[in-house]
Amino acid sequence: MSTKNFLIGTLIGAAVGSLTALLLAPKSGKELRVDLNNQAYQLRDKTDHIRESVSIKGNELTSTVKDKTTAISKKVSEQSVGLVKKVKGLTSEIEMDSTANPVDELFEQNKHTKSDIQKKLEETKRAFDETESKFNTK
């Protein structure tokens, strides 16, 4: 946001400065009109160049964001699928073991699963933080 404001301020300042210099210069009306026309064309060219540059940077940033978002979504999806498989595996193991108390078994398995889930969540959070820090530095 501050870069945008700076560029706008720079353009306005350049235009006002140029106009002031032209109006205060001791020239005839015809020479002044020619100079104003030249300055207007130069200003338009500079503005076009800045607009193109901003458009290119915006497209690059959009592409990077899409790529990173896709990668993060894929990683989260893979981790979610892995967790679902673990939970399904735990329930099927409990069902197969008829001699053990299912509540005690589930409680024991849940301790391990909880730490695994916590580790996966921390990994995901780190991935999000890394991606966010990369975007904030650009």
UniProtKB/TrEMBL annotation:
Classification via InterPro entries: Desiccation-related_membrane, YtxH
Keyword annotations of the record: Membrane, Transmembrane, Transmembrane helix
Pfam short name (any one): YtxH
Segments traversing the membrane: 6-25
Superkingdom of the organism of origin: Bacteria
PANTHER family cross-referenced by the UniProt entry: GENERAL STRESS PROTEIN, SLL0268 PROTEIN
UniProt name for this protein: YtxH domain-containing protein
